[in-house]
Amino acid sequence: MQGEALRRALRGASAPRLLPGPRRAAGAVLLAACAVVTVVLGVDVVGRGLPGWLDSAFDPRIHASLSRFPALLQWLPGLGTLTPVTLMTLALVLACAATRRWSGAVLAAVAVPAAVGLTEYVLKPAIGRYSFPSGHAASMFALAAVCAVLLAGPPRRQVPGAVRLLLVFMTLMLAAAVAAAMVAIGAHVFTDAVGGAAFGTGVVLACALALDLVAGRRRRAPAARPAAGSGALQFPPLNRSVISST
């Protein structure tokens, strides 16, 4: 399914961009901000190795706020584990395929696993502290970012803008709640959660911009080729006066 979706996403000349118009510039700016946050926090974590002043300032407040809801603290961390994340990703892929939004299906199928894999197998070993960045935060914010991209420019404008904005807000709040719950139970500190949120969001934005770039080049490629059947060799018209004189 992923291979077919990728071929259709790149072949479809009339498919709308994932980040059209002004949203492309805003997405690039947000991607740069996510990269800066991830790098700065990562360098800080490598330099000190222990929780910093941000963690000391926010961790007790998060724990005090969520400790009043023990049921949530038992339920929320489970949403960021592999099985729920895989099922939610698959649901997004199937929803995009059902609406023939192939570029969205590719985005969900590629970006979320990429965010999880890079977090667990690249960033954490490279930094050396296996709690930074938070894998729960990276996966949940990657899912939220995919939803935000898809809802920002749906193929059919039947859903009012206010409803789409509310749905985006709800997905972001759910991702933030999972990240905060991981801090509240002591599995992560505040900077782990922020780093994971920034990295997961950045991976999705990078994938969306890359897909738009590739699809845009494939749209322009047929126009640059000569029309089929026009003839490889073209001769200038004959000069009839010269022919008649001979």
Describe this structure in words.
The protein is mainly alpha-helical and 246 residues long. The chain has one domain. It is built from ten helices and no strands. The chain has helices at residues 2-11, 22-48, 53-66, 70-79, 82-98, 102-127, 135-152, 161-184, 190-224, 240-245. Helix 1 (2-11) packs across helix 6 (102-127) and helix 7 crosses helix 9 (190-224). The termini are far apart. The model is unreliable at 226-233 and 240-246 (pLDDT under 50).
Q: In percent, how much strand structure appears in the residues?
A: under 5%
Helical run tally: 10
Summarize the main sheet.
none
Topology order in helix (H) and strand (E) letters = HHHHHHHHHH
List low-confidence stretches. 226-233, 240-246
**What is Rg?**
24 Å
Mean pLDDT rating = 84
Shape: globular
- Judged by helices, strands and strand pairing, the structural class is mainly alpha
Head-to-tail CA distance between termini: 68 Å
- Tally of separate domains: 1
Describe this protein with a few key phrases.
246 residues, mainly alpha, globular, 10 helices, single chain, 76% helix, disordered C terminus
Question: Can you summarize this structure?
Answer:
The protein is mostly helical. It is built from ten helices and no strands. It has one domain (2-9, 16-219).
